[in-house]
Amino acid sequence: MNNTQISFILLLLALFTICNLHEASANDYYNSSRSPLIETPFVRLPLGSVKADGWLEQQLTLQKDGLTGHAEELYGDIGDSAWTGGSNDSWERGPYYAKGLIPLAYILNDSALITKAQKWIDSVINSQRADGDFGPRNKNWWPNMIVLYYMRDFYEVTGDTRIIPFMEKYFDFQLNNLPSHSLESESGWAKARGGDNIDTVLWLYNETGDPDLLDLADLLDGQTNDWASYYADGTGDNSYPEHIVNNNQGLKRPVLWYLRSDDAADRDAFMNATGKDGWLMQTCGRIDDMWNGTEPLTDLGSTQGTELCAIVERILSNSIALRVLGTPAIGDQMEKVAYNALPGDLKHDIKGLRYYSLVNAPKNTNENLGFQQNGDGHNAVCPSPHSGYGCCRSNFHFGWPKFVQHMWMGTSDNGLAVAAYGPSQVTATVGNGVQVTIDQVTDYPFRDTITLNITTASSVSFPLKLRIPGWCDNAEIKVNESTMTGVNSDTYYTIDRSWSNGDSVNITFPMKIKSSVWINNSIGLQRGPLVYSLLIEESWTETASYLDGLFKTEEIRPASAWNYGLNIADLDNPDADITVVESAMPTQPFKASDAPVKLVLNAKKVLTWGDFRTHLPGRATEPPLSPLVSNEPNEQVTLIPFGSTEIRTTYFPYVGKDDDSRFKFPISAKAVYGGSISPFGTEIFEPGADKTYTISTLSGCTIKSVIVDGVDVGAVSSYTFNNLSPAPHTIIAKFNVTVSNGSIPRPADILLACDSDDLPDSGVIDSWATAVPAGDTLVKIETPEVEIIDGKKFVDNSYFEYDGFRYKQYSESIPCTGASAIAVVKPIHGDNTPAWTSIVDVFYDRLVLGMQLNTNKVVIRRNGSWVSSNVVIPDNKTTILSLIVQPTGQCKVYADGVEIISDNSTSDMTALVPYSNGEDFTSYINIGRNNPDGWSAFNGKIGDVFLYKTALTTSERQDLEAYIIAKLLGNSSLKYDSDLNGDGRVDLDDFALFARDWLKTTHL
Length: 1004
Ligand SMILES: [Zn+2]
Prior knowledge:
The chain is α+β, with helices and mostly antiparallel strands.
């Protein structure tokens, strides 16, 4: 920064002080917020300021000798990339790789890698066109965002004078073109990931002060996902927000926008998303601070996965959030992800990676995993240079280098701050302009002591800010020999003094073992930033090799038991029962046989656990609900760091005696047709809680009985569980029912109706004549077949065969006043885990009535976003699903007349609009699946389907449901022909009791 710039800033500061506006103070040496952007506690040090040492440097060296150093030979889409003049991929693959290659090359200062890196810089600069756009494709908004990251890195480390003009010219191009060609019009990925673009725009603004860049940032902000609102409560105008990579990448966007908005919602978004009480951690959080998502967010399951791309993006997002917010917990998270999830997803020699990381992964085989993306295996959990979809093998390269780059930060008062501990060295200008070097000498996180050695040519005063982890209660800090006081957990501790050459800071972070409670009351253990997993003997099999055997795809199977339950007396004090064993630091601590720290404790085999799933042999079953009793003998088991394991058990059943207050148990509430119970579905409660359920009836129906834990408590309209015992509970409401013969309401508002009576008599269905409009047909996709059940025709629609139907293509929007989709289904669950499958799908997921395959939970989608019920439809149960969307966008779903979803959407429904992503497949109405994606196929039987361009009223819906029941009952060969309600007649009322009886199954 020159003197003119400094004077200008001082002038601005004076003006803002007078105006009582936010004041931006700046680090004098490094890229800092320039007014009107608000001050950040920390600032980014240029690439090259931080080097890795010890075990951490070894990770970078392994990347150089492994996947990063050989990526251009291993992968055609990188080695022959259109970005460097080749004929292969012109989108994200090459830029992803270069974003990791460049920091790796310069942190290692490796001349061979630097030579490779130069090619990716020069070809991009040479590709810039007169209008400022660059790269192999026109308006390639998303991949260009990645390129801007590494152009900035390269500028910081080399000072190449071509870079700033290159970026200025491109940003000018964006400013001129984004109004007419938005991020979303390039791709939903660009809309989701616009925060990356804002990052480099604001960085350049801080460098140059060009006010046009703020206009560009505003424009980008307006076109990017509303992540702040999504992280708060799942709402907002968003593209693929549930996508696990977007979800971790999007975290940077609100904090970056906070610099401009000074809005508490933007400031708080990061911790809303990542805090343990936030909805994301509550619904799909993991012990390594990641979320489960394959690729959409899934749930808390122990064998759900998270994606390697998401892991590295999360590290980068945390580094940005920590810089802007200065919240120490964000540094804790960054270490946890980098020291557990990242190495846990890489093979120990970094010659292989995994697409998905699973918390419990007792084997890595190329068997069916049932995940939405690469559900049929594709080595998604096997160490390989080719694992799953090709994004991760291209993108993961920046994980370790960018972690190292951001371990240290400058501060707004010309000091230095530790973002993450680990063996490293920072060289930076501090205080009044003196360059210092601080060596961070440590084997952290495998050891609890850290020494900072200061090297400086002359004494210099500056603040040194040390992150005190939230997990550490008794941190000790000594400067030279004097002990510091007032060191508190979960804060930044500042040592502001004059530092001389040879000064040192000695830090001890005592690491207590902490337990945490996960799915089915399973137990996970952490010590310091490390999560621990069972050491399982490994049996490796090579299944493919590449580059003369230097790289391999391998399967790993367990050669010892993995189904243990932990026997710890007091879960609040696990140290009492666990021995910590340290051994010499090896070259690579993230290797099971060399793990330098182990936990040894008592465990018992759990014989009711330890299986792999029947239909998904690649995945273990969930730990059974704890606490539980095991009569097996105590055995000593060894746990090692999660990141050191290739195969692992991390969530263990609990076989100890503790009555831990964190254990929770389910109450499952159900109602048969005729009324409802509130709240409906399964909720989890702490023992000792009180919980009241209320029962109400539909018009004409009365309460018959309420069954609590198997006992009839009578025809009560309300029931309270008092002082819940620590066990699962059930409550079921039954009704006396009256049903009319019904009718089809508002025929003029039917957009599409299909009558199962119009199906062919047998075999594969080529076409299904529509009842409304008469004379049209649905055209099969793949091989849906007719199945006759109790004399009634159904479509047998198979997920596994990608079955479904396509209806006509629409070129224009359909005006509507809300919408209604009613369908008869008999679902059959499978273990694969697409987030949803489509029963009725209008215009590629603009409006969907569907179901999750693995759970039989009903799912609805509006404009890409989705919400599921917590209610499960039993397998093979004839069920009438009714989705009613009001013109305001408010949606409700009824299963056999019982409300199971109520969702207040933010977008109205006054037209059904074909999804305009430029693809032809988006303009169809489909039954049984969506148009392009085979994995969206519903599994089970489909009967009558009605799609309305209006919101049916309650009585209209009930009329239609009654009509459908009457049709089903009208068949002569009904097997449910008993007088269920005992009124002396076999009639509609009995059918209602049967068809809608949630009691016919124990399926929760
Ligand atoms: Zn990926």
